[in-house]
Amino acid sequence: MKYFGQQFSHHGELIQGIFMENGVSKKALITLKSNQWKSLASYETQGPDGLEIFPSHKVKALNAARLACIKLSIPVKGTVRIIESPPEQIGLGSSTADILAVIYAIEKSTRKHLDQEEILSITSQSENGTDSVMYNNAVLFDFKNRLVIEDFKKPLPSFFVVGFNADKKGGVFCFPANYPMISEEDATRYDLMRKRLRSAISSSNREELANLATESAYIRQKYTPKPNWNEILELREKSGALGIQIAHSGMVVGLMFADKQSAEKAKELASHHGFSPWVCEVG
C-alpha cells in the first residue's frame, strides 16, 4: 500500500540574525511561509530489505525516513519517492519540506502519532539547520538547536511578494568556506529589531515588518552578498514596494506588497530588468 505526505515550503525569511537569549547569543530566524511550492512524498512498505529513495540524491530525506521508522518502531524498509519538491539550493526550504513530507507519509502508514518535538528531532538530525514551517504562529526560531526562542502568539500578516533569483543566470547558493562572523554592532541591531518585531507582529503592522525585513537584508548583504543588489534596490524604489525580504542562505529575493495588483505590476517591471519573477502570497 502507498501512503502520502506533504509539506509546503517557504519564501526565505522575514528576518535572520543573532539574538541574545539569557545572556547567550543565538542564531535565529522568522520564516516567511508560502503555499507556492510544496514537497509531496509517498511511502510504500513493500519492497526490498532496507530503505530506498527516488530521486536518489535526496539523502537528507532518506536519513529522515530511517529515523522516522526507528522512532515509530516499524521495520526500516520500503520505498520513498519525492513526487514533487520546491526548487533546490536557492533558499526556498526544499530539504526541510522534503523531510517533513517523508515523515508524514511514513507516520500515516502506522496508527501512531509523532509529536512536534519528535518531528523536530528527526529534522535536526537529518540536516544541519531547519526552519519553522511546522509552526502556525510567527516564532523566532533557533534553527541550529531546534528551539523556539520566542512565540509571538499570532501568525504574520500576509504579503504578496514578487520573488526571483537574484542571479539572472539562475545561480545557486554555496556556503562560503569561512562563513563570516557578524559584528557586535550588527548583533546589537538585531536585539533592537526584536523589540520592534513584537510590536509590529502584535499590531499586524505590515509597513514596519517590511522595514525590518529590509534592514535584515541590508545587514546580510555585508556578509553573504547577493548579485545585482543595487538593481534590486532600484526595483524597490520604482515599484513602490513596502520592503525587501530575502532567503538569508539562498539566492531568493522578494519585493513585498500589501496587495496582489501592485505585485503583478512589479512583476512586469522585474521581468524588464532581466529577472525571472513570480508572485506569491507569504506570511
From TrEMBL:
InterPro entries: GHMP_kinase_C_dom, GHMP_kinase_N_dom, Ribosomal_Su5_D2-typ_SF, Ribsml_uS5_D2-typ_fold_subgr. Pfam families: GHMP_kinases_C (PF08544), GHMP_kinases_N (PF00288). Residues 65-129 form the GHMP kinase N-terminal domain. It comes from the Bacteria. This is GHMP kinase N-terminal domain-containing protein. The keyword Transferase applies. One of its GO terms (molecular function) is kinase activity. It comes from Candidatus Magasanikbacteria bacterium RIFOXYD1_FULL_40_23. Keywords: Kinase, Transferase. Residues 198-268 form the GHMP kinase C-terminal domain.
